[in-house]
Amino acid sequence: MPADKAIKGIGHRVIDAVWRIGKASRFFFLALLYSGSGFRRFHLIIKELFSTGVMSLIIIIVAGLFVGMVLGLQGYETLKRYGSESALGGMVALSLVRELGPVMAALLFASRAGSAMTAEIGLMKATEQISAMEMMAVNPIARIVAPRFWAGVISMPLLAAMFSAVGVFGGYFVGVVQIGVDEGSFWSQMQAAVDFREDILNGVIKSFVFGIVVTVIALFEGYDAPPTAEGVSGATTRTVVTSSLAILMLDFVLTAIMFRGS
Amino acid sequence: MTFPKGKLIAIMGLSGCGKTTLLRHIGGVLKPTSGYVKIDGQLTSELDQDGLYAMRRKMGMLFQFGALFTDMSVYDNVAFQMREHTDLPEELIHYMVLMKLHAVGLRGTHNLMPSELSGGMARRVALARSVALDPMLILYDEPFAGLDPISLTVVGDLICRLNDSLGATSIVVTHDIQESLKIVDYVYFMANGVIVAEGTPGEIRASEKDFVHQFVHGEMDGPMPFHYPGGSYRQDLNLGA
């Protein structure tokens, strides 16, 4: 019966999904458990900070600049209708620090650094490097996963801050330099509108949460990938898709908790 | 199966007969559902993770394609275990790494990355890495696979010399009957997960057992079929029963 098959298929998928969530949670717990020995190898965290954080800077800066410029342009056009062009600075800054900075930086981070982490660990598994490490009595979670996890968690808020800062300058360039909004009102409106705890701190908390989620997904997908070319490519795709959806979903949840009624 | 101290023993058989699974049991990666693996008086199935890691520190393993860490140089690959498991000063590690690489004839490659090595060279560096801490037991998973005749002889000779100089026990899982019979002390033949024949290289060469004869002489006809079991050829080609 086709309906029977369809129900069975759905059931299998649900069971698989629950299994994978369980495995990923256990993996996250192990990454935290072995973080102590990961921190003892601090040079590895520094190395990973460079490859995940520093190497993502270019894409973050360029994307932040253009997003800020678009915000400046679109914001000016909208605010002009209500005669509130002077509020452009506040609008650009609030959009960036509350939403676009953490979310866009996390999406870019998932595509650039997350996919690279998955592919690297997946290939290490396919070429038996992880088995070799286990046979050499070195725990791969402590040696490979924990340093990358902390590098991702530390990098993410810094990249989001960089995205927002560059975005503000993009908005300034279009709004003030190109269109001619008053420079004084641009900065003073921004200063008046943005609250450190309410806006900036909440934005940092968001990016910190995104950092944990994206890094755990990327590392887990790599570690759990079937050791074949097809397996690694599928895991890399899943990292980008799952991370992106998780970021957008979590963004809604966090926004609802943080900014409801403010 | 028993692997006496100081001996070089080969485990042979067709692909899928359970050789690598056996190696994984010896390394403690898999736990036996029946039977046991005892190394140096310890049952591997009774060890927790710390116990397993302590046991593995006394082991070395050469993987089929070397499994060198691709983000580290040849030098760092060989130094890896020394840095992870000992408090030796970097100066002493430097001497030891160069000595290990010299033993496999690749001292000159210490600055190279694994991607710059040929398959045979990578296997030799992996061999140097696997004996970095002078293990009492060395496991070799298909050490001769995919090597040219010269590299094959070099790797075979190295396995033999390292076993003698370290006084270690070596277990070689391989298909390469001719090369292994030259260097090993004893051979086990496996099929479908069980031992079907065993003996010294001389006994194996002289064996009249069908299985051993077919394997040693590489014959197509014998107890091991060439074709994977399937339905009727005529039926598969739609030519009737």
Secondary-structure blueprint:
The complex is a heterodimer of chains A (262) and B (241).
Chain A: H1 2-33, H2 35-40, H3 42-53, H4 57-81, H5 88-126, H6 129-135, H7 140-179, H8 183-193, H9 196-224, H10 229-259
Chain B: E1 8-13, H1 19-26, E2 38-39, E3 42-43, H2 49-56, E4 59-62, H3 74-85, H4 90-103, H5 119-130, E5 137-141, H6 149-166, E6 169-174, H7 177-183, E7 186-191, E8 194-199, H8 201-206, H9 210-217, H10 233-236
Helix pairs in contact in B: 3-4, 3-5, 4-5, 5-6, 6-7
Which terms would index this structure?
heterodimer; A: about 260 residues; mainly alpha; 10 helices; globular; B: about 240 residues; alpha/beta; Rossmann fold; six-stranded mixed β-sheet; two-stranded antiparallel ribbon; 8 strands
Can you offer a commentary on this structure?
The complex is a heterodimer of chains A (262) and B (241). Chain A has helices at 2-33, 35-40, 42-53, 57-81, 88-126, 129-135, 140-179, 183-193, 196-224, 229-259. With 262 residues, chain A is mainly alpha-helical. Chain A has one domain (34-259). With 241 residues, chain B is α/β, with parallel strands linked by helices. In chain B, strand 2 (38-39) and strand 3 form a beta hairpin. The mean pLDDT of chain B is 85. Chain B has a single domain (8-236), classed as 3-Layer(aba) Sandwich (Rossmann fold), CATH 3.40.50. The A-B interface holds A 123-124, 127-129, 131-139, 143 and B 27, 29, 52-54, 56-57, 59, 61, 63-65, 67-70, 80-81, 84-85, 139.
Strand elements of chain B, count: 8
Structural class of chain A, by secondary structure, is mainly alpha
Name the poorly predicted regions of chain B.
Answer: none
Largest sheet of chain B: 6 strands, mixed
Give a quick precis of the structure.
Chain A has 262 residues and is mainly α. Chain A has helices at residues 2-33, 35-40, 42-53, 57-81, 88-126, 129-135, 140-179, 183-193, 196-224, 229-259. Helices cover 40% and strands 15% of the residues of chain B.
